[in-house]
Specification:
Length: 496
C-alpha cells in the first residue's frame, strides 16, 4: 500500500531519506545498505502470493503425476485450487475486522487522552524511544491491529512534545510489537485459528486431531499463548528489545527530528472537530448516543453470557469474540454512530491486502492438503529433525516463509498441515509448536515491510527510514528465539 491508498487523516508528505552520520557505526551502515537493497529488489507481498501459488501448483502437479496421467493430474490440480479458493472467506473477514476494530478503539477520545498522558512521561530522547517500544509490545499482546495505530499515535505525540528525539527510531519502535510478541498475544492468528472451529478446513482439523490425540483437532488458548513457557518468552523479549532500543537510539545531538525530516506532525486528534451535523431528522440519530448504547448493551450481554457459559473463560476467547469485544469497546467510547462510522471509514483502506491475498492462500492450502503434499513435507521435516531440534527448525522456517507470505493467519493455513503432522510423528507438544510458529513468524515482520505500510503513511516516512532499526532488532532477537523455543520446549510433553 502506498501513502496514496490511505485516508487523508493517515497521510502526510514523505521526506528524502537523510544519509547516516559517519560515526553511527558499522551495524547502522549495514542496516542502511540492507534496507536500500530491500526497497529496490523486494516486490509487493501480493507478488509473493502469486509466486507461491505457481510453485505449489507445479509441486502438486508432479505429486499427482505418479498416480495418474499428466492431463488428469493437471485437471485435478486446477479443480482443487479453484475449489479451495473461497474456503477461507470467514477467516478473511475475521482478519479484516482485527485491523478495523483495533483502529476504531485506538482512535476514541478516551484512549487518545491516555496516549497523550503516556507521551508526557519520558524526559529524555532515549527514554522516549524505549517507552514507545515497551507500549508497542504491550499493546500488540492485546491486539496487533490496535497496537499498530495506538503505538503510531503514541510515537507522534511523543515527537510533538520532545523536539530532539530521533523520529526514525521512535517510529521504528512503534512497530516492534508486530516484530516480536504480537502472535503470542490475544490476537495471535495461529492460536486463535486452532481455538476457533470455523477458522480452518476440516482436513486440517483431522491432521491436528491425529488418531484421537487432540479432541476435534481444537487446541485451546490455555495450551498455546497461555502456556507459562509462552508467557516467559514474552517477558524475555520485552525486556531485551526495550533495553536494546534504549541504547540504539541516537542521542539528542545526533537525532533527526520530525522537523529535520520535513514531516509535519499536525494537530492532536483531541483537537479534531466532531463530524458535522445538519440537524436534519435523517441525521439526528447518527449524532446521538442512543443507538450506540443499545448496541453496547446487546453485545455486552452476549459476551458476558458467552464467557459465563464456557467451562474455562479463556476457551471462549477466539477471533469472533475478540473482534466483538474490541468493536463493543469502540462503539462505547466513540459515543455516537457518526464518530464510529468515521473511524471505520478511515480504517478500511488498511484491509485491502488481506482481502486480495487470502483467497490465494486458501487455494495454496487446499492443494497442499488434498494432494498430500503436507505428508511429503512433514516427512522431510522429520528426516532432518529430532524432538529437541524440531522447534528451532520450524521457527527458522516460519521466519523465512514469513518474508514471502507476510500474514500470520494465512501462512499458518499453509504450514499447519505439515507442521502438525510432523509434530505428531516426532511426538512434540502440539500447542508449543503453535507458539514456536508464532515466535518465528513475528521475526519476518522485522525484514518484510508489508505490515509497516499502514502506519508509514501516518508517520510520513518510507520503509527504508525505519528498517535499519528493525534489522538491528532482528539480529539480536533471532538467536534469542532459537534458544527460547529449544530450552522451553524441553519442558513440555506430547501431545498437549
Amino acid at each position: 500500500m502506498s501513502s496514496a491508498d490511505l485516508p487523508g487523516s493517515l497521510r502526510s508528505a514523505s521526506a528524502p531519506t537523510p544519509s547516516l552520520p559517519e560515526d553511527d557505526g558499522r551495524l547502522a551502515r549495514l542496516a542502511a545498505r540492507f534496507t536500500a537493497w530491500a526497497e529496490r529488489w523486494i516486490p509487493d507481498a501480493f507478488v509473493f502470493a502469486l509466486v507461491a501459488t505457481v510453485l505449489v501448483v507445479v509441486a502438486a502437479f508432479f505429486a499427482l503425476t505418479g498416480k495418474k496421467s499428466a492431463g488428469d493430474a493437471a485437471l485435478e490440480v486446477v479443480q482443487l485450487w479453484g475449489g479451495g479458493f473461497w474456503e477461507l472467506l470467514p477467516f478473511t473477514l475475521q482478519m479484516a475486522l482485527v485491523i478495523i476494530t483495533g483502529y476504531v478503539l485506538a482512535t476514541t477520545r478516551p484512549v487518545y487522552r491516555l496516549i497523550a498522558a503516556l507521551a508526557s512521561v519520558p524526559k529524555t530522547p532515549r527514554a522516549a524511544v524505549a517507552w514507545v517500544t515497551f507500549f508497542a509490545m504491550a499493546s500488540s499482546w492485546l491486539n496487533w491491529g490496535f497496537s499498530l495505530i495506538f503505538s503510531a499515535m503514541l510515537a507522534r505525540e511523543v515527537a510533538r512534545r520532545m523536539e530532539r528525539v530521533d523520529y526514525r527510531a521512535l517510529c521504528a519502535s512503534a512497530f516492534l510489537g508486530l516484530g516480536s510478541i504480537w502472535a503470542q498475544g490475544l490476537s495471535g492468528s495461529a492460536a486463535l485459528q486452532m481455538a476457533t472451529p470455523s477458522a480452518l478446513q476440516p482436513a486440517i482439523r483431522a491432521i491436528v486431531a491425529g488418531n484421537g490425540q487432540v479432541a476435534d483437532g481444537l487446541i485451546p488458548l490455555t495450551h498455546t499463548i497461555f502456556l507459562w513457557q509462552s508467557l516467559v518468552s514474552v517477558v524475555v523479549e520485552v525486556v531485551v528489545i526495550t533495553t536494546l532500543m534504549f541504547f540504539a537510539a541516537p542521542s539528542a545531538a545526533k537525532a533527526k527530528s520530525a522537523k529535520d525530516l520535513g514531516v509535519d506532525l499536525g494537530a492532536s486528534p483531541l483537537d479534531v472537530e466532531p463530524p458535522a451535523s445538519r440537524n436534519t431528522p435523517g441525521e439526528w440519530l447518527e449524532h446521538r448516543p442512543y443507538l450506540s448504547v443499545a448496541f453496547v448493551a446487546l453485545a455486552g450481554a452476549f459476551l458476558v453470557s458467552t464467557f459465563a457459559k464456557a467451562a474455562e473463560p479463556l476457551t471462549a476467547l477466539n477471533l469472533n469474540t475478540l473482534n466483538l469485544l474490541f468493536l463493543t469497546a469502540g462503539v462505547a467510547l466513540h459515543g455516537t454512530p457518526a464518530r464510529l462510522m468515521r473511524a471505520v471509514r478511515e480504517a478500511t483502506p488498511g484491509v485491502w491486502g488481506v482481502l486480495l491475498q487470502f483467497p490465494l492462500y486458501a487455494g495454496i492450502a487446499a492443494l497442499i492438503v488434498k494432494t498430500q503434499l503436507n505428508e511429503h513435507i512433514a516427512a522431510w521435516f522429520v528426516s532432518i529433525s529430532t524432538p529437541q531440534s524440531f522447534p528451532a527448525v520450524i521457527a527458522v522456517y516460519s521466519a523465512v516463509l514469513g518474508i514471502f507470505v507476510p500474514s500470520g493467519g494465512s501462512k499458518w493455513v499453509i504450514e499447519a498441515p505439515y507442521v502438525m503432522q510432523a509434530a505428531h510423528d516426532l511426538k512434540v507438544h502440539l500447542g508449543w509448536m503453535v507458539a514456536v510458529y508464532d515466535l518465528g513468524e513475528a521475526l519476518a515482520n522485522l525484514l518484510q515491510p508489508f505490515w509497516m505500510l499502514p502506519v508509514l503513511g501516518l508517520f510520513g516516512l518510507k520503509a527504508r527510514d525505519v528498517m535499519g532499526y528493525t534489522f538491528l532488532v532482528f539480529l539480536v532477537l533471532a538467536p534469542l528465539v532459537l534458544v527460547l523455543v529449544t530450552v522451553l520446549g524441553a519442558t513440555l510433553r506430547y501431545p498437549l
